[in-house]
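Troubleshooting entry. Yesterday's outputs looked truncated, so today I'm pasting the complete records for two proteins to confirm everything comes through intact. If either block looks cut off, that's the bug. Protein one:
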Amino acid sequence: MTTTSMTAKQQLLEAVEGHQPAPFLSLIQGHEKKRKTVDLEEVVLELSRGEVKHVWGCLQAWADEQVTAFVAEHHNQNEEIAASGTNNKDQESTNKYNEKLLEGIVKFAHIYISTFKEGTTFIPGKMLEMTLLLHEMLAAFNGSVKLAIVSLCEQWWLQELEAQDLLVTNVLSHLLEATTRNGAQKKEVLRLWKLHNALATIDLDSPNNKKFVELLTYCISCPIFLNCDEGIKWLVGLFSWPSLIPLLHKEVRLAIPECTRAHSAKYGEVYFKAWKASQGDTKKTIEEECIQDLMYTAIHANPMSSRPSANLHHLLHHIHSYKKHRAVSSLITELYQPILWRSFTVANGYVRMNATGLLCDAFPLNDYNLSQEEQSNLLERQYHTLKTLLLDPCHLVRITAVKGVFNILCKYWIMVPNEVIKAIFKTLLTVLVYDVTTAEVRLEVIKGLTLLLGSADAVPFLIQVLPRLGDVFDDANHKVREAFAKLLLKVKESQALKYWDIVSVPHLLHRLELDNPKVAQLVSRLLLSSFHPFTKTDEELLQRSLSLLEENRMAARRFYQYAGSMISLPNVVHFMLLLWLCLSNHIALHRQQQQQQQQQSDDEENEDSEDSGKNDSGRQRKQQSVRGGRRCERDSLVSTSNKENAAGAGGTVSSKTSILSKDFETSKVLAEGDEEKEEEESEDEEVSPLDNLDVLCGILDTVGILWATNAHRLAKPENNKYLEALRNKLSRNFQHFFKYFKGNADASRTLLYIASFLPKSLVPTLVGHCMSQLKAIQVEQVVSGSDTSYKSFVNALCNWKHGDSLLELLSEWLEEGFKSGLITGNKERRRSRRQVRFCETSTPKPQVALHILCHILEHPINRVSTLQRHRAQLLDIIQDLTKVKDLITERLHRNEELSDLCCDTFLCECWSLYLRLVVVCHHSPSKEPPGKQSIGRETEDLIFHSPACVLECLEWASSTLVPYLGEKNGGKRKLQDTEEAFTLITTLLRSLVTSSTHLLIIGAANIPFVYMLNDFVKILIETDSNGMFWEEGLCLAQESYEFLWVYESSEEEKDETIITGSRLANICISSMADYFKHHDQLPQECELSNTLVHLLMSLGQRSRQDQSYVLEHLMSCVVEHLCWRIEKNNGVDKEAKCIQHLGGFVALLVGTFQKQTKLSIVVMDAFSHFLSTANHDMTSLLAACHLLEVLLQDSGKISRYSLKQTVVAANSVMSAVALPEKESEEADQESPLSIYKDSAKTANKILDNLKESLSIV
C-alpha cells in the first residue's frame, strides 16, 4: 500500500466534511483496484462510533443533495416548458447531479456493512435513512447507480441487518426483471435465489403487488430458470403460495407447446418437488388442479401435432419415474383412476393411443392404500387391458401398445406371470408381426424383440421364440427388414443364440444379393466374422472366401462392397494379394496340366509313328522338335510365373495357404511324371472350388470391388506403399490372365476394370485392345442399354491418359453421322485433320459416340481429367456439334428422318450433348503448372463464353423451332408428320431451357441473360397450350429468382414488363389453370408438385413479400377455376368431400401445400389476404367458401387455426355484401339477381357451418 491507514482516514474525513467529491471518489477507486492503494475496510474499522455518526451525517446530507438534483434534472427533462425559447439562468440548479458521487456513496455504504461481524453491527440513523430513500427510488435510477443500490440492499438482507424487510421489495422486482428478460444469465438467477426468503415479507394478495405477481408468474416460462438448479428451487418455492399455483399452472400450459423436450422434463421435476415439499390444502391443490389436469390434457391432446402431446408425456414421464416410492405410486394410481380407464373405451383412436402410452409408462399402477386382493385385481386389470390394446382396431393404438408392452417386459420380466407372457407373445408372433394394415406395427415388434434381448431374464424364452421368425426377413417393407437385420446383429452380440438358427446362411445371402444398400450393409456386418474372420489363418480365410463365392457370387460382390470399408487397409491389401496369388497359381497349374496332356499325346503319337514309313517318321521328328521347343518355353514361363507370384505375395502368404501349397505340390508331381500317383491322389481329393469358372470370375470381382471401395484410402500419401505393392504384383500376370479368360466376356471386363487402376506403363498392350473393342461394339446393344461394357474401356483409357485418342475417334464418328444427314452437292465441307491419323477403317457409330461422351461427362474422375487435359479437343467437338442446328432445320422441312445414322433420336441426343458441353466448358482453363510456359494465343483460344453461345441458340430456336410449335396449336401446318415433329421440337426446346437454367445454377450468366431467358420461356409457355414446359418454367423461375437475388441490386426499380422469377412462376400457374379447363390430367408424368414446393420454399427463404405475391396469384387462380366449375355445373358440388373431387387443377395446387405444414400456413395467410384485399364478385366468394368447406373435411396438415383465420376473413367480406331487400314477382329465377341471391345464400350457409365447426363466435 502506497499510503498509510491514518492518512487515508484523514483524507476520508476531510473529503466528507468539506464535501469534496474528487478526493472521496479517489479513495473509492483506490479501494476497487486489483492492487488496492487504499483499504477502506481498515479505515472504517479505525473510525470511532462518533466519527462514524459524523461521517454518515455528512454523507446523508451529500446524498440528499444529489437525490434532489437528480429529481430536479429528471423533472426538467420530462417536462415541456412553454417558453422553450427563453434562457432563464435562474432556473438552473446551483448543484448539478453527479452520478459518480452518488454511486461512490452507495459503494462506501456497501464497504461499511461488509466490515460487520457477528454482534458488532452499528448502523447510524442517517445511513438507514439514506438507504431507505435510495431503495424507494430504485426504479427511478438507472445504470451503475441502480446496480450499486441493488448490491447494497442484497448485502443488507443477507447480513440480516436492521430494517431488512424494508429494503428488499424493490430489489426483488429488479432481479425478477433482470432474470426474465432475453439474454439473462444464470448468475442473476443465483442472486435471486439467495433472496428467496424475502418473499415472505411481501403480501402477494395485495392489489398493489399485481405487477410483482406477474413477474413471479412469468418466471416459470423462462428457460433460464429451468437450466439451473437454483432456478428449479426458486420455481418450486413459488408453488408454496396457494394464490400463485393457478397462475403458475396456467403459464406452464401455455409454455408446453413451444418448449423443448428437456424443458418439459424440468417442468415435471418442478411439479414433483413442489408436491413433495407441500402439505395440506396446497398439496391437494397441486395434485388435483395441476398434475391431474396435465394427465387429462395429455390423454385428450392431439398426437399428430407432435410437440404439445410429446412434451406432456415427457413431463408426466418424469413424475412416473418416482413410482418406486409408495406414496408416489399411490398418488399416480389415484389421479389416473377417474380418467384413464374410461379413455380405453372411447371412439376416438387418438385418445386411446394417448391413454395407452401413459398406462405403459406408469405401469405398474399400484395403490398401497388398497388391500392385497384389490391390488392383485388392479394388476390383473392392467394385464388384461394391455392384451386388449394389442388387438385394437386403430393401428396407432397397436403401435403404442407394442412399444409399451416390450418396455414393460424388458423392465418387469420376472414380475409378469408366465401365462401373461405367453398370451402376449402369441398375439405378437402370430398376429402383429404379420400385420397387413401397416408396416409400422411389424416394425415395432422387431424393434421390441431387439430391445428385449438386452434383458438377461428374457433371453431363455427368446431362444425358443426367435427361430420361428425367419420368414419375417422377407417382409415387403425395407424398414422391417432393416430392423430384422439389426435384431440378428443383437443376437450375434448376445451370443445366446446363433443367428443362423433364425435365418439360414443361404437365406441371408439371398437377401444380401437383392436387398437395398442399408439392409445389405447390415447383413455384411453380420457375416463379416464368418466369411472374413480377422483371427484366422490365410488358409482358413481363403477357404471361406471361396465358399462364399461358390455359394452365391452376386451376394459375395455386395458383401465385399460393404466389407471393404470395415476392414483395415493393410488387411484389405493382403487379402487382395492372397486372392490374386491363388488365382495366378491355379492358372499356372492349369497350364502345366495342359502341357502334360500335350506331352502324353505326343508320346502316343511317337509310338504309333514307329510302324509308319520313313517319310512319315522324318516329318514326325520335325514336329516333335517344334513341340519340344514350345514345351520348353511353356515350362520356363510357368516356373518364372510361380517364382514371381511366390516372391510377390511373400513367404507368409504362400506358407499359410494350403490351396496354394496344394497347387505347387501337384505341379511338382506333374513335372516328375508320376502319373499313377497323380491318378490316385485325384481320386481321393475333393473337387476344388477353383475348378468352377464362376468362382474364378468371382475372385476377379472381389479384387476389383475391394480396390474400388478403398481407392480413396489408397490415394492418400501415407498409403502409397500399399498402392505400389498392388500395382507391381497385379500387373505381372495380366497377359496370362487375359489368355486364360479369353472366351469369358465377364471375366475379361473385370480384368479390364482392374487394369484401369494401373498405370499404362504396366499394361501397355491393353490400350490398343480397348480401342479395338470400342470400334467393334454393337450399336443396338449400346442404344438399348443392354451393353454397358464400353464404360470400362472408356474409364481405362481416361485413366491411362489416352483421352485424346478416344476423343478423336468420337469426333470422327460424329462427323460421319452429320455427313449422312446433310444434303450432298450443295455445300463444301472441310475434311477433319484428325482423320489422317486413322489408318484402319471402321464403321462409324455416331450414337455410340454420344453415349461415350455422356458417360465421360457423368463420371466425376473422367470429366475432371478430360476438361484439364483435352479442353481444346472438347471445344472442337462443340464447334462440330453446331452443325446439328442445320440438320434440325433440314429435318423440319422433311416428312421423314434424314437417314438411318442421322435419325431424330440422334438429333435430340446431339442437341442435348451440345448444350451440356457448352455449360461444362464455360470455365476458363486451369493455369499451367510452374515450369511450363503457354503461348498467349493458345490460352485465349481455350477460353469459352457459354452464355453467348446459349444466346445464339435461343435466337435460333426463336426463329426456327418456336414457329413450328405454334403451328401445332393452330394455324397453317407445313408438316405432314405433325406428331413426330412436335415431339422433336418439344424435346429440343426443353433441353435448351434446362441447360440454360444450369448456367444460372453455376453462376455463369449475367442479369440481361436472365431476363432474356425468362422472356423466351414466357413465349414458350404462352405459345404451347399443352403444358410441355411447366416444369422447366418453374425450375427456371426458382433459379432466376435466386440468381437475381444475389447479383441484382434491390434498390433498382423493375419495370412491369420485365419478367422476373416470381412473374414467370405466375405465368406458369395461369397456364396450368387454362389447361385444366379442357383436360382432366397432366399432359405428361412430371414432378410438378415437388418443383412448385421447392419454388415456394425458396421464395419464402428470401422474401416473404415475393412469396405472398406468388401465393396470392395461386389462390386467385384456384378461386377462378372453382368459379368456372360452379358456372359449368350450375352450382357447387355438394358431394365433394376431398380436394381431389374439386378437379385436377385444384387438386394439384392445393394438394401441394396441403402436405406441407410450414407451407400450408403461409398459403392460408395469403388466401386470407387475397380475400381481404381483392375485389370479388359473389361467385368468387362462393367458390372461396366452398374451398374452405372441403378443406375442413380434408385439411391434411393445415391447422385449425389457419382455417379459422381464413374463415374469419371470408366472413368479414361476406358481412359487407349488401343484398336487395325485395325481388319483383316477375323476376326470372335465372336472372342475374336471382343467381346473385342464391349464391349469397349458399355462401352464408357454408360460412355458418364452418363457424359452428370451428367454434368461431
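Protein two, checking that the full record survives here as well:
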Amino acid sequence: MANFLAQFQTIKSSSDHIVISVEDVSGLWPTVKKGFEERLPFKRACLNNKTRNSVFVENLPAEFILTTDARLRSRFPHEQYLFWFREPYATIILVTCEDLDEFKTILKPRLKLIVQNDEREWFIVFVSRAHPSNDQATKMAKKVYSKLEVDFSSRKRERCCKLDIHSPEANFWEDLDFKIVESIRNTLDRRVQFYEDELRKLSEQRFMPVWNFCNFFILKESLAFIFEMAQLHEDALREYDELELCYSETVNVPGKQRDFGGLERGDEQAALLNSGNKPLNEIVQDDSFREFEFRQYLFACQSKLLFKLNRPYEVASRGYSFIISFSKSLTSYESILPFCMREVWVVTASLALIGATSSHYKEGLVALDVEKEFHRLEGDLYSLCRLKFMRLAYMVGYGTYLERSPVNSASLSMLPWPKPAVWPSIPPDASSEVLAKEKMILQASPRPKHFGIQRKQLPLEPSILLREANRRRASLSAGNMLEIFDGRPIDGVVSPSNKPHTAAMVRTNSIPGNFESSIDRPMRLAEIYVAAEHALRNTISNPDLLKSLSSLEEFEQKYLELTKGAADNYHRSWWKRHGVVLDGEIAAVSFGHGNFDLAAKSYEKVCALYAGEGWHDLLAEVLPNLAECQKILNDEAGYLSSCVRLLSLDKGLFLNKERQAFQSEVVRLAHSEMKQPVPLDVSSLITFSGNMGPPVKLCDGDPGTLSVNIWSGFPDDITLDSLHLTLTATFNTDEGVKALKSSTPIVLNPGKNTITLALPPQKPGSYVLGVLTGQIGKLKFRSHSFSKGGPAESDDFMSYEKPVRPILKVFNPRPLVDLTAAISSALLINEPQWIGIIVRPIDYSLKGAVLHIDTGPGLKIEESHAIEMESHTDVMDKTTMENRSLGKKNNCHSLKIEDGQVEFPDWASETNSVMWIPVRAVSDQLPRGSSSVDSHKRNIVDGMRTIALKLEFGMSHNQIFDRTMAVHFTDPFHVSTRVADKRNDGTLLLQVTLHSQVNAMLTVNDAWIDLQGGFVHTGKGDGRPTSGFFPLAIASTTRAGILFSIRIGKVSGDEANRLDADTILNIKYRISGHRTRGAHPPVKVDSTKSDDTEQDLTFRSALVFQRPVLDPCLAVGFLPLPSSGLRVGQLVTMKWRIERLKNFKDEVLYEVNANNVNWMIAGRKRGHISLSPEQGSRVVISILCIPLVAGYVQPPQLGLPDIKEANISCNPAGPHLVCVLPAALSSSFCVPA
C-alpha cells in the first residue's frame, strides 16, 4: 500500500470536492445541466459527523460528472477501496419516456440493471417533455411516472422525482437537493465506517512485526480527507491529531535507528505551513517517514484546517508550542545537522507563522479575551524569532553592537551556543575578512553612561564564545590560554613579569594543511566570526535572512522590525509590560541613530513601568539613558525630574559621588534661567511628618506654633529659599485653612530635620499635614508624602497603611441642622404611605442642599410619585387642620428623586420644612387572629422599618449630617375571636372583634369568612355576617364586633386535606386619616385616576378553628405539687396520670419537654408505658426535676407524640405557671454582728 504514496498525494491535491455521478439514460444532461449546476454549492446541507451527530454545512461544494466521463472510467478496480474518497457519493439517473409499453420493455430492464449495485446511492429523475397544452402527452407522462414510482420507490425511501421542463413544480429543486444530500450522507456514513473498520484492524497490529505506519497513514489521511471534502473540518482535524499522536509513539519506539532528515539544501526554511513542500514518497524511511519533514507536514495539514475553521488564534497557539518542541528535537540532532540549523529554522518558522496568522486574522470577530491572547502569542513568536536572530548576529560579530539591557542579557545569557560536531573552520581566502572583523572588534567600545556612572556590563553569552568554539574544533592544542582569550588578561593567568601577554596579529588560517604540525593553534575571535559567517551562508538558503546578516545596517533594520512587531503585539494583549520593556530596546536603537526624541518617549514608558512595579534595579539601568536624552533635547523640566528620580532611588544603587552629581545638576538648573519653569514633585525625596505625642490643641481664633519633622534624601546639604506647609481638615474641605510659612531660608541636612513654624488661627476641627511646597532658587517644588524614615514601631513611621494622625485640633464646633420624624404613629403596611421628615436649619443656610435617602430591608420608595415638601409650623390652628383634612396643601412643592437624591428648593434654605416621601412597607406575612386559647399577636418589631438619611449642604457640600430613623408600620386591624353561643344542633355563633391599630377612622364596608375544612356556613352560606349593619365605622384605638353563624360539618374525603388549613377573614374597608397624624389613605400612584375616587382596601387575616373533641380515648391529668412549694435547687417530683377511657393502644409513647434554662430533668424524659386493656385503668408518670431560677416559670409539659390531640382529654394537663421560691440562705455565708 505504501507504493501508492505518490499517486495518493496527486489524487489528494486534485480532489477537493464531492463528486456526483450522472447516469444519462435518455440523453437529457445537456438540457438540465444548467439548472442542476446552479444549485451548487448546496446550502445548509445536513451531514453526520464521526460520532453520527447531525451537522449543518453552510456551503457543500460538489461537481456533477457523467458516468461516461474519462475521469470515472479510467480508475482501476484495486484503487477503488484505497482511494474511495474520490468515488461518487451519489448517482442521479436521468430518464424520460412517453409510452408505457416502451417503459415496460426497454426502460425498466435497463434501470434494473443500473441500480442492481447496492453499494451506490442512487435516485431517478424523471424528465417530462410534454407540453402543457398537449393533454394526452401530459397524462401519459403522469402514468409512466406513477409506474416508475411503484417499481423503484418504497415506503422506507422515496427514490423518484419528476422534473417538468416546461413548467417545473415549485418544490422540485428543494426535493432534488434533499435527495442528493441524503445520498451523500448515506455514502459518507458507509465510507467512514469502512475506513474506521480498516483502521481498527491496523491498530490491533501496532505491536506486531508486520506493522507499517505508511499503510496506517494512507487510511487515516483518507478518512481525514473525506471529512475535509465534506466540509467537516472539526472531524478532519481530530483525525490529524490522532495521526500525530500515533506517529509520535511510532518514532519513539526504542531499538530502531531512524534518519532524522534536515540535511538537504533548503531544509532550514521551515515548511510547517506548506504540506506540499516535499512529496511523501521522498521522505519514506522503511515503514515510516523521516521525522523532520513528516512532523512539519502534519502541522501544515492541521493549520490548513484551522484556517478553514477561521481559528488563526489556535494556529498561533499550536504553532508556538510546535516550534518549541521541534526546536528541542533539533537540539538532539544538532551534531549531524548543518551549522546553526536550529536557530535558522526557528527564525523562518516564526516569521512564516506570524505572516500566515496575521493575514487570516480579522479584528472584531472574536471575543476580547481571545483577541488579546492572540496578540500575546504573536508577541511571543516575534520575541522567539528576535532572540534566535540575535544569537545568529552574535555569531557573525554583531554582538558588540547589541544593547546590553537586562532583557537582552536575561534572554541571551541563558541561550546555549550551537553545538556542532566540529566547529567550522575559516576558508583559505578569508584573510581580508578576518582583518575587517579584527578592525571592527578594536573599534567597538561601550558607550559611556551619563553622569560618569560606571557599571559592570551585563553578559550576553552563556560562556565565552572563544573558548566554546575552540573546544569544539577537530584538533585542539592545549596552546597558550592567553591566545585563546584573544590576548585579554584573565584571572590566574599572568606572565612572570606580571604583564599580560598580547596575542600577535597572525593572519594564517587555522585549517588542516596550513600548519606543519598536526595540532592547530586556537582560533582567534575574528576568525571564529568569519568561519561562522561562511558556515551560515552554506546553511541559509533564504535570501532575505542572508541579507539581514550581510551588514550591520541590515541587521539593525531586521532587529528593529522584530522588536517593534513584538512590542506592538504585546501592547495589544494582556502582557503590556512586555511591550513596554521592548520599547526600551527600540529606544536604544533610536538613541544610537541619533533619534533622541523617539528614544526619550520610549524610555519614559519603560521608566514608568519599572517605577510602578518597584523594580528599582532595572530603573537604575534605564533612567540615566532617559536623562541623557532629555539633556540632549534641552528638555529642562524632564531632565530635572529625572535627576530627582535618580536621587530618590535606593542609595545602594549608585555611588555617593554619582548621587552628588545628580544633586549638582538639580541645583544648577534651579538657579539658572529656565525657559519654562514648572513645579517639581519631590515627594519621594523630601518627606515630612508631625512630632511624636498628642496633637496640638487650640481654641477657635488662637494662634500658636507647630513643629514638623522633614527628612531630606539629598546626599549633601541643600538650601530651601522658602517653605509653605498646608493643613487639611479631617472632616471637611473648608477653603479657609491657612498655610504655615517660613520667612527665612532653611538648610536641610541629609536625614531628619526639625523645624518650627508659626500657626495662624484656624477654624474649629481636626487637622492633618497636607502639602509641602517651597522654592529652591527659581525652582518651585512640592511634596505630599508622609515620612517613612522612622522605625516601624514608633509614631514617626507614617505610611498610607496606617490612619493619618491629627497634628492639630481646634474645638467649639456646633450643630448646623436637625432632621426628625414628623409623626410617631403607625402607618399602613403593604400600602403606599407618606413619611414626613422635619428639616430644621440651625442658623445655617441649606441652599443647594442634597438629601440622600436609603431605605432599609422591607421598605421601598414609590418613585412613580413625586416627593412633596411644605413649610412646617409647630402649632397648627383648627382652620389649618380642617383645610388639610379636606385635602388642601399649604405651600406644597413637588420634588424629583434621582438615584435616591433629592435637591432642596431655595425657599426651604432658611425655614423649617417638612419633606413627605411616598414609601411602601412590604410584608409577605399574613396576619393571624387571636382567641381565648391562642393569644398570639404580631410583634411590634415585625412592623419596624428603617430609613437612612444623609444631608449634604454648605457652599461645596462639605457639611454632612447623617441620621437613621425607625418607622412603624402595622395592619389596620387586629382580629380576636370567641364562641358567643353554642346550640344543641351544633350551630356556633362566632364573635369576631376588630381592634383598630391606627390613628385614623376605619370604615368596614363588607366582611366574609373563607372557612377551613370541617366547618360550614349557615343561612345563605356566603360566609357573611348574620346581620347586615355595614358600613361599620371604627374610631382610632376602639374596637367593634361582627357575628358569624357557622356549624360543624362532616369531613369528606376532599376536605380531609384542608383540615389543617386556616380560616381566612376578608374585610373590605376604607380609611379616613391625614399624613400629619398617622395612617392615611394610600398614595395615589396612578395619576390617571381622579383624586375623588376612593378605592376599597382589602384586609385578610388567618383564623385558626379547632374541631371539638368528640371521642377522647385517653385522659391526662396533672397531679398537685407538694404543699411546701418549690425552691431553687431542691428536687421535686412532677406527676401526670393517664387514664384509659375506651379501648385504645396498649402501649403509649410519652415525652417530657422542659426549658433547659429553668429546669434540669433528673429522670427519663422519653419512654413507653403499658396500659391495662380494661376501661378506667390508670398509670402515673413521675419525673424528678430541679428548678434552676426563681419566679413564675412554666413547668415541664407532658406530650404524647403518637396520639392526636383530638383523642386526648386534659383535666388539666398541667398549670400554665408555677411559683419557684429562691434558695434558702446558707449559714456559712452569714457574717456575725
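Both blocks look complete. Sanity check on protein two: Residues 724 and 741 are 5 Å apart (CA to CA).
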